Write the structure tokens for this entry.
Amino acid sequence: MHFRRFMKGVALPVCIALFAAQSVLAQANGSLGGSVLDPTGAVVQGVTVTIRNEGTSLTRTTTTNGEGRWKATVLPVGKYSVTFEKEGFKKSISENIEVEASVPHSFATTLEVGGIENVVTITSDQPLVQSESAAISRQITGEEVTKLPTSTRSFTGLLSSEAGVSSELSPVGVNGNGNISPSVNGTRTTSTSLFFNGIDATNITSNEGSLNDNIAPAPETLQEVKLQTSLYDASTGRSGGGNFQLVTKGGGNDFRGSAYYYLQNKAFNSNEFFLD
């Protein structure tokens, strides 16, 4: 009897919390991987691969396997540098590698023969290949969210820029959050799902998948908006329409901030067509 009470009161909630934490980690992060080759095209095993977040200095280390491949999962979104080291080869550093939410990326690296004290730095963008998922998606960066004009300063005003996504005009004449709920590939506007930093926020205010009257973070706080319109897997989609993911900015080593003033008044808007 006491054991049953323990299982219901302690063990079961702990298991649920661990499962929920795993789901959050799977949703709000991305992954990097790839292969390491020598100048002849042969795979190189035993290469030490160090992945470092350029904003927070978060560091992960792994090694290439017998097939010369490596992978790092559960990486917070952001810019990374990847360092490859092995005795007999020059150290190689790839910079400005971007990790996106729920998107596994991979790229190939060729090590040059030489002393490890010699460093080869690749500063141009690496050609990232997304070959582990058939999902059709698009990323809207935080810079695009703040610089592209929207009538209500809502991220939902940019969702219709993706092929297959349609929506009505933003509600500028009402005192609300300015959200609009798009239709993805002809599905209902209530058939979408929304994740906020890995947490399912689809039904945060209603028992449907509409984005109207849902969360509306300030554009300055967003680091990434991810649109997945089709072929996404079960870990991110539970609705028949699209899957939208919001990732807010995280902390860094530098102190930064922004200030803005926004005013919208109907008196400043142009008159309606039928009232002219």
In short: DSSP finds two helices and 15 strands in the chain.
